[in-house]
User: Fold these one by one.
Assistant:
Number 1:
Amino acid sequence: MQLRSKAGALVVTGVLLAISGPPNATATEPARAPGAAEAAAAVAAAAAEGPDPIDFAVVVDQSKSLADKDLIREVEAAALLSQGEISERSRAAVIGFGSSEKAGQSPVREVCGLTVADAAGRQRLSDCVQQLSHRDPQHTGPGTDFPAAVRQAVDRLSEGADSAVPKVVFLLTDGKLDVSDSPEYGTDAASRQANGAKRLTEELARARSESVQIWPLGFGSEIDKAALTAMAEGGYRNGCADLPGATPRMRVVDSSAEIDKALQETFAAARCAQIAHGTVGKPPADLTVTIPPIATDGSITVSKHDPKVSVTYYDPSGRKVPTQGEFEGSTFETSGQDGPVEALRVKNPLPGRWRVHVEAPEGHRDREVAVRAIWQGRLRSAVTLDPASPRAGERAVVEVRMQTRRGVVVTDPRQLAGVKVSARLSGTGFAPVTVSLADDGREPDRQARDVRFTGTLTVPAGASGDLELTTQMAAPGVTADHRPLHARVTSGTEKVTAGLTVERKTVHPGDTVEGTLDVTNNDTVPHTLRLALDDQSPGSAVRIGPATVTAAPGERTRARFTLSLGAGTPLGEVGGGITVVDTGDGGRVLDTSFLDVRVEAPPTWWDRWWGPVTGGAALALLLAAFAVVRFAARRRRRDLSGVQLELSTDGRALDELTIRSGQSTGGEFHFTVDRARGAAPALQRSTPGASGAHRLRRTGGGELLLRPHQGRESAVRAGEATGIADGLELVVRDRRAPGARPSRGAWSGSGRGRGNGGSGSGRGGARDGRTEGEAGSAQPRGRWSRPSRGGDAPERPRPEADPAGSGEQPAGARRFDPNF
């Protein structure tokens, strides 16, 4: 199958492509040593591709209105906030406050000045925040001076501030203003309180003018919610993005069990990140948290409360990762080992379920440890402008495709739920033009929900010279790079035109892909065209040959080229694109094409083996035997027996189903999600073509493909969550995957006894073809539940509830059935 690219498009993927010179060096060109300027640019580029920084202050109420236990919780909260930050360019300060009621007292106590949150800075923050664990009545009074606290935080965040960096105050308090004994506010208690309230309004107005957000977190037994709301609304109201969840608001921490969850959700909202809730357990225990494929930067936080708790981290492949340094394409940095909160910051994390092992000596195992991950996806945008060099007044089509730094091409629209994508065109002779891009299948978008965002803009009539196109994207937890695409306005007749045709196919690592370049040279001299690859996936080692084509004057030329994929090319979509430029016309881009190439696992040695056989009868027998064995091997490779399906929502597991021998036909298994009224959604085996059926199948190469009902078929990786419908996610566990092992506490089927012999169409039969008396019998031991609704089956054991309500289970935990 051939895919014809749009003539005259221009692509920038991963780097800035300068139109005045040649494009990126291809993989076939020799490397050269970078100069000082290039090294500095590389450092700046590396910083720019990381998560956006924020400047924040954690302000802790140490007044007498809070009990000692609430103060301890506040201190742990301050540690959690300071350790969870994902950008090493962020700055943080920690401030305690009370009141000033007599000589020698100050209302504020700054224990951590503004500190860059790199590896050393986060450790300093972990150490100094412990100073808040005790009150200092000699230097700080027992009242609650909010105006002084807000003023101190705004002052610190305004020091050397970058206007583009969000500034946030996390205010941990019960919300009760108390300056009744502070002489600076007046001569009597009543006037002091009134003046304090007036001064607070003024300080909040100053915070708003300095673009400082206020995010109050309510602690204590008697919380003034109205006061907290007023403080959130009094500060700067524009969040880190144009998203509802990024607007400052107050939140009350109701219980100790909710404190970590509430804090990190608030922190994630304030810095446009996402939170993944993991499991909870007492040492020794194995806790887990899942990081999605779209994440490029994150911190795994371990709320251990006791510094004696030791932590070891394992990636989704089961490998122990270092606490500092690089490993398998990721960069690690640990801090807070000697504090109540430890954090592992990871750049380019491996997606999937991470395991966190916690140990503690005797006498330090009484408190539960919680693990969570805060993450952000920094996507690289591949952008095309068609035509690449438009004329003034001409309409042009913009198309954008996204991939992560690890080279994972985003093909699942659910990963970009709620995304807003736009493109901004600027240049000489006109005011900037912004156009919204959509993935809805309406012209000019070619296919809905293919995660390619498209829109049309008209180049202003006054445009001349250079053009600059910048992609902008906003989604919860996801941001796009801001590197511009450079083009220029065309005037006069183009001397050379070209069109790329790139083969669209599925290949194996080490294979090749063919392409064709058609060139028309209307000039009187030959032109040299260069083919270049942009923004390739790490490890793909894609090479193009030949890299240059000479177009003879006055002739049409057709040249063939080959894309060679390295043996280590990762499975899945190949990212980046291919661009052709005219080196004789200032590096003008003539055409471009995305690489629509999918890489699958290579066939096994058995598929390749063919032994020589001699003799007529012997040859026939051997061929017959080989055919039988080969057919059986293919069936085994495609067999789905033992594969486990796990249904969850918002990280909370709902149901599991194990595919049994004989239930997959031709490598396919069909299932539905049963939504009986009053019951949690459950997985049910179904027949092909049944209403609402989803399909899981395995290819001859061993790859798992999932086609949700009314959705597109796409590859799934074992252990990674994939959305299927209405907020529900499916995790596929494959015993054949490297390092795969059965999940702890898993069972075959939900045990409710619904279904009709596996058809999924009835209510009275047993599930998955089992008899009513067998339904649910494979569950682990636990509490006894009431009889299943599908018949008179005996009562079955149900797993225990997840203590954190997260849906992920610690070692040895049993799953909670909502119908119990």
Note: The radius of gyration is 31 Å.
Number 2:
Amino acid sequence: MSKQQHEKCLSAKQRIVVVGNGMVGHKFIEDMLVHDSDGQYQIITFSEESRLAYDRVQLSHYFSGKSAQDLALTDEDYYQQHGINYVLNECVTQVDHHKKLVVTASGREEPYDKLILATGSYPFVPPIPGNDQTHCHVYRTIDDLEAIEVSGNQSQVGVVIGGGLLGLEAANALKCMGLETHVVEFAPRLMAVQLDQGGGALLARKIEDLGVSVHTEKATTEIVAGESCRYRMSFADGTSLETDMVVFSAGIRPQDALARQSGIEVGERGGIVIDNQCQTSVEDIYAIGECALWQNRIFGLVAPGYQMAKVVAQQFCLDKAEGGFKGADMSTKLKLLGVDVASIGDAQGSTEGAQSYTFSDEIEQVYKRLIISPEGDKIIGAVLVGDVESYDQLLQIKLNDMPLPENPAVLILPQLAGEDASSSGAGVEALPDTASVCSCYDVTKGQIREAVAGGCQTMADLKSVTKASSGCGGCAAFAKQIMDAELASMGVSVSNHLCEHFEYSRQELADIVRIKQIKTFDALLDSHGTGLGCDVCKPAVGSILASFWNDYVLNDAHLELQDTNDIYLGNMQKDGTYSVVPRIPGGEITPDSLIVLGEVAKEFDLYTKITGGQRVDLFGAQLHELPLIWSKLVDAGFETGHAYGKSVRTVKSCVGSTWCRYGVADSVGFAIELENRYKGLRAPHKLKFAVSGCTRECAEAQSKDIGVIATENGWNLYVCGNGGMRPRHADLFASDLDSATLLAYVDRLLMFYIRTADRLQRTSVWLENLEGGLDYLKQVVIDDKLGLAKELETDMAYNISQYQCEWQTTLASPEKLKRFSHFINSEYPDQDLAYELERGQRRPADITVTNGQRIEIVDITEKSV
């Protein structure tokens, strides 16, 4: 096609200008790409930010390791491939609806046939004197988070003004940065919109137990210079609070300035007025998302914005919108600072004549309130704090006007009088096909049933076909329930077999190995499997064998079961070299041992890094160097740190009462005892521990698989937390324990996990999937419900007795050392490694590939071999 033909083709298309490239603006573009199969429209979108749309719902994960790229919903390549024009760093300042064009701050003019205002909202900053100082921030964009991170690196104390959803997320971000964190809220309780007084009170208590101070009914009057900190916040009641930084998260306001100055109708209190078709007061101009005011309501969640986007896209492409926008349910289920919280409908019980059932357990820190209609036949609201397991069921009963059981209290207390909540007939089978499952992508039960009928049998398949649970993820468990129920109704058995070679689950194989005392993969394959095995069953069985018998992993019988890292007892890096991580129990190390590490790193020119687990990681060792390095380390008293295995990695600790003026117990000593007890324990996945000497929690114990925090009366035990891609706060398992009892509980819990977890399943996911959850786990471990306590302790004792440093064993075997050479027929090392200097140490050089040749683009640091 010639340039003139191309331009003529474009001119024949209708032009859609989208002002705003946030989540909702991008969703509209995606919907248009789905529905505009004839290519009738040309789309251009403007973004005030320097990047395309990203996931603001997951914004807080930026502080737990996710990058801006991880949060991105799209990229420039995607838009270019689909013919979407985009302009970054450009603010639209004027709409001329007579000429049908928009004007940007730089003077750029763009004509439109249809205009979509998806300008979103902006953070409300209370008019407090001093609110514009250097270390005062808002919490809305990635740029905001980057600025908060800079301030956090220069601060000790941080305050969030606002105790709503975003405020508590911001507080979590400050806590993750290691700051002493405070939340200041004007209302009498946290999450005043979503929770009632009882729920808000328990939430505040649980958050304070996590080390975040909560100050309610506080009106800030000024922010001035502080004495002990950078600033002092003065309150209307005469009190004050000192802090080094302030984050404002006191609500949002619709971004309607463009509409106001362009003559488009806005509400008395803000928001661009729209009808059911999302049409504004001006023809061919639409508003969607948080900037839009529908029936005097602003929707501050992403799901309603997605519904608006769908309504507009269907109008343009299908000449219909399935009845238009009809409002949205604002129920929410989320985890704030590790605390499960859910709110449904009229959570305040403000409906005249409403009745309620309330359950409050201050020991277990659970609060539930069920609010029903005056007639007692419908759910109109609910509040859940600490235990939200019944959320999906309650929400579906409300949304679908389903009948209530004779005693509605069983819906929040299924065990009441021996009754079961399923007696209400509210299982997933009873739901109509119109029941909404995923509000982010407007997926119904009927669509899931259709997807299953079309061949979906896994959650990955279901996400691909329907997008259910691929937004905020809150509906994942509910969507799987429907999928499994539908498969069962079709007579399809969902296999839990480990692989094609074993018709058993990982848990069943663990029982077989343990009960029948099977010690090798070949013996298990001969007795209970078929074929030769594969890269799924071999490492899984290898882990099971190591967990129960703790045999040397490089014995000939086990060698083929190991992956690359285990075979060479080190983590392979991206350039083919390995890392060396000696064990440093509890993070305690003598000066002489530090000197040895420094000498080894210097001799072998290794990149040196202090890890988050309080160890020293030495990077860049070639394969033939590993025995030489470890020989020196073992001679100096070091052991392998098992950084390469699915095993206990580290036990992190603070200095505790030994040095710290706040410490109430010897956290270092106990951390060393824990690490020496469980070192080498193989499990379905890696395990991390931590011990804090007081509730200030400097060792971050509540983000670990096993976390221990000292109290005046003993130790508090937290379990099944983790960081990583999907962080989970650990649950309080038992309080005020003596050391012997705590060790017994940990023995039982870890062995029970090893027996029952799935392949490569972290303790966090294991607990979430464990039927009965935390309460059941307590019954097994603490109350010995299954009568396994002694057996589990005996299994652990055997495992501990079999411990050996795998590197020490390897160094004593000339046969095993033959594996540590690059080439079978040559003694030469790998000469094809390129390095560059960075901050005084060598690292893998950035290289490019041209005609199959590696080209070094920086100077190479010489390395003697």
Note: The CA atoms of residues 169 and 382 lie 22 Å apart.
